[in-house]
Amino acid sequence: MQKALIVIAAIIAAAVGIATYQFWPQPQPEALVYNPPRALAPFQIESTATQQTIDNDALKGQWTLLFTGYTFCPDICPTTLSDLQRILPELQQHTDQPVKVWLISVDPKRDSLERLTQYTGYFGDAFVGVRAEHPQLFPFVRDLGLMYSIPEEDEENYLVNHSAAIILVDPDGNRKAIFNADHKPGEIPVVDMQQLKRDFAIIAD
């Protein structure tokens, strides 16, 4: 009789535990998460990883953080890439899939594949530079939900205005989330890397 009561009590405790877990509020990402993930339109773009043209399949089998920028960028780009380099090992702890960073150059006039290779190589093997001319580049960037400005043809020394947000693409090659930059007076707009780490842990797990 006593053993039966113990078994019954254990079953009740387990049921209560499961119910509590199911109804207890679970942590939610602060980023904008797409459920279901959104497919990307077909694209073709040059990559420093292969030194040739790639397509949507290059995003499959890995988590990818996509960021628009350019090698002549004085502030947002080197800051963001350095921050991502710093947290990348922590992101990798939450998944068995590789975590990669794509720098999408929005300055095809000055950013050759060779220059991009040298630039992204500084940050490590997980960093890939991709480029295309504006007719292919602009639709690709716009499909990601990002933007950039195109300078006049005769301009030589110029800045390119571009989004500071980071797009997360899942291992199926679909857009999963967007991490928007913080815009604070007197500071360059950059993504909160602590938030990105917390959100990625929730999304990837």
How would the blueprint of this fold be written?
Layout: H1 2-23, E1 32-39, E2 45-47, E3 52-54, E4 63-69, H2 76-92, E5 99-105, H3 113-121, E6 127-131, H4 134-143, E7 166-169, E8 174-179, E9 181-182, E10 190-191, H5 193-204
Parallel strand pairs: 4-5, 5-6
Antiparallel strand pairs: 1-8, 2-3, 2-6, 4-7, 7-8, 9-10
Helix pairs in contact: 2-5
Disulfide bonds: 73-77
InterPro entries: SCO1/SenC (IPR003782), Thioredoxin-like_sf (IPR036249), Thioredoxin_domain (IPR013766)
Family: Belongs to the SCO1/2 family.
Summarize the structure.
The protein is α+β, with helices and mostly antiparallel strands. It has helices at residues 2-23, 76-92, 113-121, 134-143, 193-204; strands at 32-39, 45-47, 52-54, 63-69, 99-105, 127-131, 166-169, 174-179, 181-182, 190-191.
Give an account of the 3D structure:
It comes from Idiomarina aquatica. Keywords: Copper, Disulfide bond, Metal-binding. Belongs to the SCO1/2 family. GO terms for molecular function: metal ion binding. By secondary structure, this protein is of the alpha+beta class. The chain has one domain: Glutaredoxin. Helix content is about 35%, strand content about 25%. The strands form 2 sheets. An 8-stranded mixed sheet has the order 1-8-7-4-5-6-2-3. A two-stranded antiparallel sheet has the order 9-10. α2 (about 75-90) runs parallel beside α5 (about 195-205). Mean pLDDT is about 90; it is low at about 10-20.
